[in-house]
Design a protein that fits this description.
about 45% strand, about 150 residues, eight-stranded antiparallel β-barrel
């Protein structure tokens, strides 16, 4: 009898750790740029691809260009060989430049996302580091999302 209780307790204590390990590889959520002026919500769209919309703007950006809220800025990201930590082949729209770039994503850890932006080949691009945030610290924009 005590043996079965020990096994049950061990299983119950281990199960949350397994769930946490899987969630640490999840790229969806709210991500803040290094400049801390824009937050992008990454989510699944079109089955397995990943896309992102502007979900939060700092007060200055919001006042200067309120129409950016909800703008689609990332799309067509595909999981690299079913690896939940790497996404490739996407397109990034840089609203401040009104330009389009190729983009790849790599989840460095549960709260850090590396965004590789490039023209042509990834080796010639730049990597931007994003930080995971929550809606409690960065409430969503007030405009409806648009495509």
């Amino acid at each position: 009898m005590p043996y079965s209780i020990v096994i049950t307790l061990l299983a119950l204590l281990t199960f949350p750790a397994v769930l946490y390990a899987d969630s640490s590889k999840e790229v969806t959520g709210l991500w803040l740029t290094k400049k801390k002026d824009v937050a992008v919500r990454l989510e699944y769209c079109n089955d397995k691809s990943l896309c992102g919309h502007i979900a939060w703007l700092n007060p200055k950006e919001s006042a200067e260009n309120p129409t950016l809220c909800g703008t689609k800025v990332l799309w067509d990201m595909r999981s690299k060989k079913d690896d939940p930590t790497e996404w490739v082949g996407g397109t990034l729209y840089k609203a401040d430049e009104d330009k389009y770039y190729s983009a790849n994503l790599r989840l460095a850890d549960a709260n850090t996302l590396d965004l590789r932006v490039y023209i042509g080949i990834p080796m010639l691009g730049k990597t931007k580091r994003l930080t995971r945030i929550t809606e409690s610290t960065h409430p969503p924009c007030h405009l409806l999302a648009k495509d």
